[in-house]
Amino acid sequence: MKPLFSFLLIGLIVIASSCGDDDEPTPDVVSPFQEWASASVDGINVKLLGQERFFVGYNTMMLEVFDNNDNPITGEVKITPMMDMMTMSHSAPLEYTHGQALNAGGSLEFATVFVMPSGEMGTWTVNVEVLDKMIEVPVEILQPEYSKLTSFVDQVDGSTKYFVAMIGPKDPQVGVNDLEVAVYKRQSMMEWPAVTNMTMELEPWMVSMDHGSPNNVAPVHTGNGHYSGKVNFTMTGDWQIRLDLLQNGELCGEPYFDIFFQ
Amino acid sequence: MKARLLLMLMLGLGWSALAQKETAYLTWLDSMASSSYIAMEITLDELQINHETDDGLLSTDKRRYTMRNTDQLLHHLPGVSMVRRGSFANEPMLRGLTSERYVLSIDGMRVFGACTDKMDPGSAYIEPISLDGIDVSFGGQGNMLGSTTGGSVNFNLKKPIFNAERPWMGQFSTNYGSAAGSFDQAVDFNYSKDRWAVRLSGVHRKAHNYTDGNGEEVRYSQYEKINYAGALYYRLTDNDLLTFDFVGDDAWDVGYPALPMDVSSAKAKMYSVGWIGTNLWRFERPEVKVYHNSIDHEMDDTNRDTVAMHMDMPGTSSTSGGYFKGVLTSSSRQQLSFKADYFTNLSYAEMTMYPNDPSELPMFMLTWPNIRRSQAGMELDYQRSLGELWQLHTTARLDEARTSIDSDFGERQLNVFGRSGTEVRKEQLINTSVNLSFRPGKRLTTTFKVSYGERVPSVSEQFGFYLFNVHDGHDYLGDPDLEKERNLHFEIVESFKSNRLQLDANLFMYRFDNYIMGIHVPEYQVMTIGAQGVRWYTNVGNATMLGGELRGAYELSRSSRLSSEMKYVYGKDFEDDPLPQMPPFKVNTAFDQQWLGINWRTELEWASAQHRVSEKFNEPTTPSYYLVNLRINKSFEVNDNSIGLGLGVDNLLNESYREHFDIGRILRPGRNFYIDLKARF
User: Which residues of A touch B360 (CB under 8 A)?
Assistant: First the structure.
């Protein structure tokens, strides 16, 4: 009779378990920023915070300025990222998220698109002008395993160099992902304005199998050179986000990003 | 869920008020005291079209000629065709309708295959040696098994025999076939003592690649399997019975030449416990059963050397359920039966593809994203005589089906198509039928049948994700928002019976509404390398099927008999194009003779060419073919034991052929000599 009872038991468990719901723990909320670089000049202490180590691409950053007594310093501030390559130097795209004033806590959120990694080619600093002082904060910029920044030369005029940074998806997964890219052009060594008049076409590509995915939404301009759309992945693996960038109906370039996830 | 089942049972009790007349009920279980129990019909449905207990001339004697496997057994049933993907686990097709349109059950237990490519219909896990009979119904009549638009197939498991003349009984059979070098063994034991009866059976089969009619070896058509089944029955009192049934099946190294993938392992386990009594409240012959079955299916292409990319596609399916049935009113003039049933199924399948370049990541997707389907139903079955000439049989069934997926990953996949599956979808289903028989004399019976059936989409039709179908070379996507499919079914059956001649003819018409079919979506790109397009399962509107079957048997003399069967199905879809996989006109004729103490049988099979093909589904036309099969069989009695020896050849002329609905244009086996030996002790 044993098998009978164990079977009945199994049956009951199956019925009971099919009614239950699994509780999922909610993660604790912590500040996404942590400090990666700092410098001090004449009693002004500057800290640079980031959500991850600074990398080639679009970095959301936080500037914190304190005096020696740890009191926040407020007021206008000017930030200039600089690449010193010995024989020459250049800046990079910069975006003030909410204006140029340090808040009451002495902090300011901004974003920088570092266009190359630190290394033998040169070194990066983020120069902060506050209270008429210039504080140069050395930063180390890493090349991420999968590039989040790509550049191309305008196919129409053959000279303008554009930089396209992929801001999202940060954590790509199977399904619908928010796609956000930002486009800049190099006007001069010091001028890297956002490009706001591109139209885009989008095609995600599964490289290993040569197919795309359906129902994607091509990014459209939302402000400050940012473009938002939707990208769909139907499986895990090696995907490419392929973009066509057009200006006045003419194809300027075909940048792409590799996305790998399991 | 439990509460709902109870509610249905209580509703059933309400109906019992209709049962006013206590009838003298035959001492039904007493028949179990003899071995005649094994041939007993449990359901009293006279309209079952096929049952081994049918002693009419039309029943081909399947005991005399051992059927080597379940597929072969099904192949010989009227109105049934077998869709081949290889030598193993063919998919039964009822009048041109495949498994999503009919109910498949094993002893009343719902079983759902675990393969997204339909490599394992439930029939793959059952062996003839464990079978007592097969019930088949067509159209909206689900034979008290479930809601359906295409019919039902139920495999009755063999029951242990109580108090037989010998406590130990058994049989052993073995056969060898030349076309695939196949060698099978099967053994069956029965033991009973006092209130206990046990049966145990075991089967082993092994086949190599077979050779087709062109003399070509069909690669990847091998298989090997074991099957073990048992039943333990206990009589609580003389008339009450506790039952436990078990079936296990384990197949490995199974090739599917028509498909790009094989199966390294397919395992099934089925359990049920039940109680059969004489009276319970207002119910006579009450029967309760609780069951669980699970299938693990490993599809892969490890042994294939010409694939674009290796992949694994494992799947699992588990089903739990139960039913209660009983007779509410029974007299010589009428009978009202009731059944309440419930099942819940969980289907899961995934696919991992491995790029040839090892630096690229493997790709993963869920092809069945943990799909939970539960269905509860209630059915009434009423039969009554209307005067001397008319007989009425009517059924009514109400179901509620609930379907959802339980997978974040699967949900995100669906979101890509603007669909969602986590919310439970409820669907109420109605199945009803009326059969009216007119019998003006002893010889002629005319039956008019009308049935209306509804079904929910299959899990693949509702939630399948890029399932590649070799037949039309398309990737298929399920649609969670599919509506139920409906079928209105008309049939006229004319039966003639005399001492020497029996004829059975029917004409039927199926009119589907909301017919579910894959529709090409040009803007979607294929996933599978080499596929030609993507289809989305869609409710397309109407589909119509017309057809007929004619069966006849004539006793030429006491020792010889001629029997024949013809069938044809015509199908058209919502655009008046032919439906795919429609069986063409086919004739089977057999001549049986006893001569020199030996049974001789000659079979002729002819199928017409099929030129009515679905261009939408890239269907090829199929040429006509002609088969000749010969068999001889001789039984010996040795000390109360019997030994049967059979010799035969299938496809004597070595015809190179395939049936129209076969997948992948793979030819069926060529000439096959076989020998079988069967001993009863």
Answer: 207-208, 237-238
